[in-house]
Design brief:
Elements (H helix, E strand, L loop, with lengths): L3 E2 L10 H12 L13 H18 L6 E4 L2 H16 L5 E5 L4 H11 L4 E5 L9 H7 L4 E5 L13 H10 L3 E5 L11 H4 L3 E5 L10 E5 L25 H14 L6 H18 L3 E3 L10 E6 L4 H6 L4 E2 L1 E2 L1 E4 L2 E4 L1 H5 L4 H4 L2 E5 L6 H16 L1
Helix pairs in contact: 1-8, 2-8, 3-4, 9-13
């Protein structure tokens, strides 16, 4: 890479070990995994090995892993599949305002089909109140979907507490864990979830592969109907190549869960920013319950998009958009009650395995020059 990449929450490069695991399948495992003859056996074996590797990272059993085309499909399968499977029992789905569009848009679609969607507010650090969730439950509640960690701020929700509430009321519970898998522990039994979504390209695997954990005994209506692939959850011939990539990525990620070295870099980054800009830089998100690689800050009095435009070799994301001189905050910052003045200057820096201390120093130096100018 020619620049400094600090946008790992958007996408990650393919890990070299993942690429190495994929290469043999390009040559020999071309058969259909569902075929009973010799050509189908290698891809079938690769597929099931990958399933076990994904399950291993989540503390699940292999039969509970359904391969999908990515996190968005996993979310759609969890939400739509649950609604259609449970609609005779009720129609209420509980979520919260700072979910990813891959949750909010499928729920808006389901509303057109009769779903009653309750969207809970969050506090000023982006967390939903479990007590408010409990109060929102009715006899018609069939599903709770609360993301594990926010993609913009990194704020981690009280998933274990929410999972306990869901079990108390015997309500199905889904979490979008696209940002958390491989970064923090995502053991499904501890979280208390029935469904959990994984996105490969957030996990140093290629784009186009993901997975949905489906607790044993949970029924879903498939999104894609056809042959009986993925134990009837998703029709379509599986890609042993992409599944192998995700499986290996999950294997590698087990060494990185917690990310202590990356968190130290992130905290050093934040310390340098505060030392440089004092009260002109503010943190967005929870100061403690936050992904170890994520730093979302606002440079008060500046516009994040304009700052990044003056630093073209730095890859990062903004939390606001500027159209015809008007600043529009992201729905996440808006739901947290961030003012337009503060939110306009927001930038999300997300660190990864290849981030170095020298890169952090260079970014702080560039920010100092650009903002001072």
């Amino acid at each position: 890479m020619t620049g400094i990449y600090l946008d790992y929450n958007a996408s990650t490069p393919i890990d070299p070990k993942v690429a190495d695991a994929m290469r043999p399948l390009l040559d020999v495992a071309f058969g259909n995994p569902s075929s009973g003859h010799w050509a189908g056996r290698p891809p079938k074996a690769a597929l099931e090995k990958a399933r076990a590797q994904v399950a291993g990272l989540l503390g699940a059993v292999p039969e509970e892993i359904v391969f999908t085309s990515g996190g968005s499909e996993a979310n759609n399968l969890a939400l739509k599949g649950s609604f259609f499977a449970l609609r005779e029992k009720g129609n209420q789905i509980i979520t919260q305002l700072t979910e990813h569009p891959a949750i909010l848009k499928p729920l808006a679609f389901l509303e057109r089909l009769g779903a009653d969607v309750t969207r809970l507010p969050v506090d000023d650090v982006g967390r939903v109140d479990p007590a408010a969730l409990r109060r929102a439950i009715t006899p018609r509640t069939i599903l709770i979907t609360i993301m594990h960690a926010n993609n913009e701020t990194g704020t981690i929700q009280a998933i274990e507490e929410i999972g306990a509430i869901a079990r108390e009321y015997a309500i199905r519970f889904h979490t979008d864990a696209a940002q958390s898998v491989g970064k923090i522990p995502t053991i499904v039994e501890r979280l208390g979830v029935d469904l959990l979504s994984v996105a490969g390209h957030k996990l140093y695997a290629p784009k186009g592969i993901g997975a949905l954990y489906v607790r044993g005994g949970v029924t879903l209506e498939p999104l894609i109907h056809g042959a009986d692939h993925e134990r009837g959850h998703r029709a379509g011939t599986e890609s042993a190549l992409l599944a192998t990539a995700l499986g290996k990525a999950c294997d590698v990620a087990r060494e990185w869960v917690g990310m202590p070295s990356i968190q130290r870099l992130r905290d050093h980054f934040w310390d340098r920013l505060r030392a440089t800009f004092s009260n002109r830089v503010l943190l967005n998100g929870h100061p403690l319950h936050r992904l170890p690689n994520t730093l979302n800050v606002s440079f008060v009095g500046d516009v994040g998009a304009e700052i990044l435009a003056r630093m073209p070799d730095i890859a990062a994301s903004t939390g606001s958009a500027c159209h015809s001189g008007q600043i529009t905050l992201s729905p996440v910052l808006e739901a947290m009650g961030v003012t337009s003045e503060v939110g306009a200057g927001s930038i999300r820096f997300s660190l990864g395995r290849a981030t170095t201390l020298d890169e952090i120093k260079e970014v702080v130096d560039q920010l100092s020059r650009v903002i001072r100018a």
